[in-house]
Amino acid sequence: MLLSGQAAAWSALMHEGLRLLTKPLDHVLQRREQELFQRHLPNDFPILLVIGAPRSGTTLVSQTMARYLNVSYFTNLTSLFPLSPVTATRMFGRRHSRPSGSFQNFYGQTAGLYGPHDGFFLWNRWLGEDRYSPRTDLTPDAVAAMRHFFDVWCATFAQPLLNKNNRNTSCVSLLARALPRARFIVVRRNPFRVAQSLVQARQQVQGDKRFGWGLRASERSESGDPLGYIDDVCRQVLQIDEQLDEQLRQVSRQRVIEITYEGFCADPAGALRAISGSVDGVSLETSLMSAELRPFRVSTGVPLTDAERDRLLWRLHAAGRTGPSMVQTLPSRR
Questions:
Q1: Paired residues of 110 in beta bridges
Q2: pLDDT of residue 100
Q3: What's the pLDDT score for residue 274?
Q4: How would you classify the pairing of strands 109-110 and 105-106?
Q5: Residue ranges of the domains in the chain?
Q6: pLDDT in tens, 5-21
Q7: What is the pTM for the complete model shown?
Q8: Strands (E), 129-188
Q9: Each residue of 207-216: pLDDT tens digit?
């Protein structure tokens, strides 16, 4: 991360150090948090949950939504106070601030204290601490606690809540039942590009392409196969897509908004208008959006070797995932 040269990566390391310094204050504020949660705070604000495969563009989509929609969100500062997230955010979090318009991130890590955070420190309360695979069942008490937390958060900040967490892709139907006001923003991306980016993440985050990274990651291929990690990544991408489709079949279509990363990059303003027009209580900051929001460059990442590319295309083709629309977006070989 230090060698990446990216501000978001350095910020992530800084946040880990700050977490040690804020731990005593977090314990002090915990009592205020408990008192706050003893109140009855009904609200009807929606909850916007951005989901999709890792490396599918969910972070960019959520960063853009956080800047141009009237929403609250967990921040990097919030994550420093896992015992008192609502109280600390209310005291120190610049309640009505907006994240930077730079939209930088390092594999989901955003820059600055007020950058959006995926909220693992909160979701782990109910879904467990395995970052790659969530629980798929909850007790009635856990459901009540989850629902109460989001009620308190939305009522405290008097805004809809936005959160992006790729792990939630595996438990959409569970969250739909537990959170009746939740709406799901599903981000899809060319499967070749998702797989390519996951290979890159293995190298840059894990330090070795053989080690899995992200939702449903595994290292199941034979160690003697020099391209076994490509098979693992393909399996990961396909499993996520299949599971997501199965989860969405159990949720009312009125609660789901599907977009593509490529389409979002081409017309982010149009995507935001579609989202705000589909969810009651969510409005646009139209003047700010008109002044600065422009199409994004579609990221293609670090190219694969010819051998990696051939193996990846072969695996995706065998699974029926290499139609003309995908192949046409791929660069020709050098």
A1: 105
A2: 73
A3: 96
A4: antiparallel
A5: 40-74+118-192+254-299
A6: 555 555 666 666 777 78
A7: 0.91
A8: 161-164, 182-188
A9: 999 999 999 9
Rounded Cα distance, 28 and 262, in Å: 46
Distant-in-sequence contacts of 254-260, Cβ < 8 A, 24+ apart: 255/176, 255/182, 255/183, 255/184, 256/183, 256/184, 256/186, 257/183, 257/184, 257/185, 257/186, 258/186, 258/188, 259/61, 259/185, 259/186, 259/187, 259/188, 260/187, 260/188, 260/189
79 vs 88: CA distance, rounded Å: 10
Residue 259 contacts residue 185 (beta carbons within 8 Å): yes
Q: What is the DSSP letter of 236?
A: H
- CATH number corresponding to 40-74+118-192+254-299: 3.40.50
Residue type at 35 in one-letter notation: E
The separation between the first and the last C-alpha atoms of the chain, rounded to the nearest angstrom, is 30
With beta carbons less than 8 A apart as the criterion, state whether 116 and 62 touch: yes
Question: Which of 52-61, 98-107, 188-197, 319-328 has the lowest average pLDDT?
Answer: 319-328
266-278: per-residue pLDDT in tens? 999 999 999 999 9
Nearest 5°: CA angle at 176, between 170 and 179?
120
Listed in sequence order, the residues at least 6 apart from 109 whose beta carbon sits closer than 8 Å to its beta carbon are 8, 9, 11, 12
Token match 């318009």: residue? 101
CA–CA gap between residue 78 and residue 76 (Å, rounded): 5
Is 93 in a helix, a strand, or coil?
coil
